[in-house]
Specification:
The protein has 120 residues and is α/β, with parallel strands linked by helices. It has a domain of 35 residues. It has five helices and five strands. Strands 2-1-3-4-5 form a five-stranded parallel beta sheet, sandwiched between helices. It is globular.
Length: 120
């Protein structure tokens, strides 16, 4: 069982992510923005992965800003970027090293594959 920090500014999509992760046996720490993510990242609790929406409306660089801060605080944290937009070179140029991507709408199998491919 992994603990996943899920950062998504759409409450419905964040709830869906929580359900998907629960269904495959993982725990979610939900956050809707950078401030909420930092609460979890600064707490003395294990976090095994960060799932972050690229387009968070409150930040200039959205989920990239969240991932950048997360990696500064927890350098070995696996990151999965999520977006409704198709993946482009401009997007991957902003990824933290080793990060992966899944496009919305995603399936439980796509989320589960993240844990199969990257040990948490």
């Amino acid at each position: 069982m992994a603990t996943v920090l899920g950062v998504e500014d759409d409450a419905f999509i964040l709830q869906n992510l929580e359900w998907v992760l629960e269904d495959i046996g993982h725990r979610t720490l939900p956050a809707s923005d950078l401030a909420g993510a930092l609460v979890h990242l600064l707490a003395e609790q294990p976090i095994d992965a960060l799932f972050v929406d690229i387009r968070l409306g409150s930040l200039p660089f959205g989920g990239y800003d969240v991932a950048d801060q997360a990696i500064r605080l927890r350098p070995h944290l696996p990151v999965l970027y999520i977006s409704g937009s198709p993946l482009t070179d401009e997007m991957t140029a902003r990824f933290v090293p080793g990060a992966r991507f899944v496009q919305k709408p995603y399936s439980p199998a796509q989320i589960e594959a993240f844990f199969t491919e990257a040990p948490c």
